[in-house]
Each structure stands twice: as structure tokens, then as C-alpha cells.
């Protein structure tokens, strides 16, 4: 049968993307929910036919260990709360999916990885683009050097209209870099298949200093990879941007939008990419369910999430110091 997933935190991403995706999955299904809001429990129970025994709040969460319907706990809370709930889920004997960014410190990532290892449970991060065909193609083009060695990368991701916990450093760990700039870091890593060695970063001006009291409004940064590859990156909570471009010796590839839930568009120097659109989250969750059943590694493990958090921390350090910061 299908593996049962419990979503923890029924906000925008759970309600708008994950629950609908779980209506399309073949190897897992929406078995349970964890919510602090009683009215959401009632609404989700009716909409998704969730039995009372699979509905938890944050006080009863630990009882999930006795529930055989739940195989996987999916943590979809504000960033700073990921560590606590991933560790609780592992201690309850469940496999875990954790949303990006994995946590707000590398130390938290280490504790999360250790807890899952100790429990003998798998941990994956919600990196949906690893299952999106255009992004998979730019990985192939870059890693297999289809246009020769990459020289330069451009990665930009921003939107306007962020609110709530995303503007609170305590809960978010930072501003647009933590939330959407992380896709630029990911994109450059999966396009090259190698790791950046150093970064520089420049905070943008605050056009709304009151709104952006505790986090950056925008940020540009550069990542230096081995072999002289330079990535030029931008993120913002004041400007829409969505592009991943790789320039190589004998050609180029560009996705725009690159990181959206759908409508991904790809071009290369040899012509357009036409792969059609998929339900990224359904593929991501199905892949994790199959990894569990077949006892094979996930392509998006906790270690990958940890490396991104490590790079994000180096970018903030470079932003503060104004200096080249090694990773
Ligand atoms: P959201 O604000 O819409 O939802 C957050 C949920 O957490 C809400 O239901 C809120 O009630 C609950 N919550 C529990 N404790 C809370 C607390 N102490 N403070 C504030 N809220 C609390 O946020 P979201 O957009 O659903 O994001 C949730 C997570 O999912 C984040 O880590 C985010 O980065 C990630 N996310 C990932 C993607 C993706 O494409 N992979 C997209 C959106 C969000």
C-alpha cells in the first residue's frame, strides 16, 4: 500500500501545494495532519477525509509514534522550527521530509541528521526542482559538460509581498536569501555538480527600513567555484526575478522562470527545451516514498540541505564583513 504522510504546519505551502499534490501521488498519500489551529483540523478532516485518530496538535505530536498509519512526517513550519520537529519526528520513529531551508544554523542541521541516523530513519529536504524536467536537464547539461566547461552562472530569485514570519529573523533565520535565494545556491550547485569554495556579498539598500527591520530586503552575492567558475546571484523581497543561466565554452542554457511551481521555461544555444510541466511536489514525495520502500538513498538528503545552510551562513558572514569568505 501507499505510505502515509502527515503534514506538520498547515500554512500556505501545505494547503496550496502539498495537499493537492498528495491527491496525485502514487506511492504516498495524505494520512494525517499536525496543526495548532482547531478550525483547520475540522476543515482538513472534511476536505481530505482524514480520520480523527490521525489528527494531532503540537501538544499531542509525540503520540504519533504509536500511529501505524503515519510513515513519513513532513515538516512545513517556519524555518526556525524545522529542527525541533524533525528531531521529534525521528524520535517518534518516522521518516522525515523537511522544508527548505533545512534549518537556520549548521549546528541544527547536524542535530537533525544525527537524530534521523540514530533512529534509523531517512531524512530528505523539500527540493522539488530535482524532480522537474527542465532543471534535471540543466543538471545534465552542466554536469556532463554538454557545452564544454561552465565559465559563468547567473542565478536570481526574488518576489515582492513577503510578510509574517518571513520578515522576522528569529523565525526565518534571515530574509530573501534564506527563503528564495537558497534556490540560486542550489541551482548553481546542481548545474555544476561541484561546490563553491568562497563567496562575496553586498546587501542592497532598504527602501522600506521599517518592514525590513530585522532582515535584508535584497542581496547580491558571488560564488567562486573551482576551475574559475563564477556565479553571480541576486535575491530580493522587493523585486520579482526568476532565472538560472549557465554559460559554457561552447554554448549556454537558461531557465526562466527556473524555480516556479510550474510554467518552467528553458532555452539553450542549441534550441528550446520542451519537456512539459509536472507536479513537482508529487514527484518529490513519490520519489521519497520509493526510496524508503526500496531502501535506496534519496537524491535530496539532509546533507544536501546542510551544505546549503552552510553556504547561506557564509554569504551572511561575507555581507557583514564585506570580505571574501571561504566555505
Ligand atoms: P506559512 O506562513 O503559510 O505557514 C506556516 C505555518 O506554520 C502556519 O500554518 C502557521 O500557523 C504555522 N506555525 C506553527 N507555529 C508557528 C509559529 N511559532 N510562528 C508562525 N507560524 C507558525 O508559511 P509557508 O509558506 O507554508 O512556509 C512553511 C515552510 O515551507 C517554510 O520553511 C518555507 O520555506 C517552506 N516553503 C517551501 C516552498 C517550496 O517551494 N519548497 C514553498 C513555500 C514554502
TrEMBL record:
Q: What are the alphabetically sorted keywords of the record? A: Oxidoreductase, Signal
Residue spans crossing the bilayer: none
- Give start and end of each GFO/IDH/MocA-like oxidoreductase domain: 143-241
Q: Which SUPFAM superfamilies match?
A: Glyceraldehyde-3-phosphate dehydrogenase-like, C-terminal domain (SSF55347), NAD(P)-binding Rossmann-fold domains (SSF51735)
All copies of domain Gfo/Idh/MocA-like oxidoreductase N-terminal, residue ranges: 4-127
The GO molecular function terms of this record are: nucleotide binding; oxidoreductase activity
A Pfam family found in this protein is GFO_IDH_MocA
Q: Which domain of life is it from?
A: Bacteria
Q: Does the keyword Secreted apply?
A: no
**What is the name of this protein?**
Glucose-fructose oxidoreductase
Amino acid at each position: 500500500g501507499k505510505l502515509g504522510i502527515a503534514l506538520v504546519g498547515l500554512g500556505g505551502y501545505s494547503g496550496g501545494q502539498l495537499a493537492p499534490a498528495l491527491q496525485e501521488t502514487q506511492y504516498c498519500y495524505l494520512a494525517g495532519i499536525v496543526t495548532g489551529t482547531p478550525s483547520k483540523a475540522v476543515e482538513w478532516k472534511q476536505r481530505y477525509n482524514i480520520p480523527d485518530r490521525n489528527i494531532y496538535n503540537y501538544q499531542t505530536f509525540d503520540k504519533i509514534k504509536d500511529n501505524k498509519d503515519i510513515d513519513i512526517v513532513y515538516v512545513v513550519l517556519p524555518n526556525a522550527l524545522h529542527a525541533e520537529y524533525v528531531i521529534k519526528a525521528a524520535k517518534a520513529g518516522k521518516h522525515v521530509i523537511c522544508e527548505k531551508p533545512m534549518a537556520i544554523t549548521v549546528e541544527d542541521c547536524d542535530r537533525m541528521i544525527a537524530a534521523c541516523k540514530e533512529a534509523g530513519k531517512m531524512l530528505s529536504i523539500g527540493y522539488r526542482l530535482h524532480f522537474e524536467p527542465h532543471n534535471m536537464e540543466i543538471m545534465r547539461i552542466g554536469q556532463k559538460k554538454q557545452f564544454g566547461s561552465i565559465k559563468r552562472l547567473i542565478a536570481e530569485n526574488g518576489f515582492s509581498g513577503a510578510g509574517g514570519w518571513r520578515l522576522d529573523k528569529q523565525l526565518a533565520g534571515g530574509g530573501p536569501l534564506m527563503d528564495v535565494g537558497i534556490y540560486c545556491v542550489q541551482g548553481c550547485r546542481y548545474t555544476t555538480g561541484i561546490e563553491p569554495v568562497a563567496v562575496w556579498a553586498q546587501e542592497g539598500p532598504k527602501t522600506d527600513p521599517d518592514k525590513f527591520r530585522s532582515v535584508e530586503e535584497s542581496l547580491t552575492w558571488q560564488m567562486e567555484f573551482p576551475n574559475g567558475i563564477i556565479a553571480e546571484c541576486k535575491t530580493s523581497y522587493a523585486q520579482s526575478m526568476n532565472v538560472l543561466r549557465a554559460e559554457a565554452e561552447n554554448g549556454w542554457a537558461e531557465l526562466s522562470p527556473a524555480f516556479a511551481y510550474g510554467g518552467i521555461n528553458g532555452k539553450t544555444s542549441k534550441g528550446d527545451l520542451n519537456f512539459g510541466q509536472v507536479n513537482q511536489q508529487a514527484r518529490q514525495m513519490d520519489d521519497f516514498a520509493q526510496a524508503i520502500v526500496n531502501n535506496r538513498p534519496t537524491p535530496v538528503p539532509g546533507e544536501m540541505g546542510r551544505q546549503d545552510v552552510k553556504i547561506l551562513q557564509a554569504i551572511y558572514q561575507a555581507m557583514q564583513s564585506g570580505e571574501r569568505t571561504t566555505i
